[in-house]
Amino acid sequence: xxxxxxxxxxxxxxxxTGLVDGSRVSKADPRMAAIGDVDEANSAIGLAVIALGxxxxxxxxxxxxxxxxxxxxxxxxxxxxxPSQMALRIVPEQVxxxxxxxxAMNDTLAPLTSFILPGGSAAGAALHLARAIVRRAERTAIAxxxxxxxxxxxxxxxxxxxxxxxxxxxYVNQSAGGDVLWVPGGxxx
Length: 189
Fold this sequence. Notes:
By secondary structure, the protein is mainly α. The chain is 53% helix and 5% strand. A two-stranded antiparallel ribbon has the order 1-2. A two-stranded antiparallel sheet has the order 3-4. The termini are far apart.
């Protein structure tokens, strides 16, 4: 259980931050960039939750919890990616759950005939923004994985989450006027 009595600790004043095992790394470390981008993605999903309202946002709230776990996973050094009492790890079942939810939403959608522009409704736009931030989080996590071992399931989760958010934006927008289609070269004249 987390218990925070004080928000500031002063331990990061030297430009370092602690990992789960107690070791310290630079706040500019690629691992920390990935953790920061995951946090930003989680915040963007929070905006989408507000735009959607309850109960439609239930799955997104679960995903927000998953992203806290994913941040802890990224902050846990080592090559043992099995979850334990001391290590939160993303597991393949979480990726599979996203895939099942993507498939269920996608089954209700017309096939894409064009790329779509981010937007449609306020909720759809919020989901697109979250998707773009998750894509960045995935890129920074992949970059970090080139220098330190990271859980492959965590990387797959980020990849699948951006797909989930894309399909969710289309799902939300189908009852709000539909997707906004890209018209290649449509504004040249």
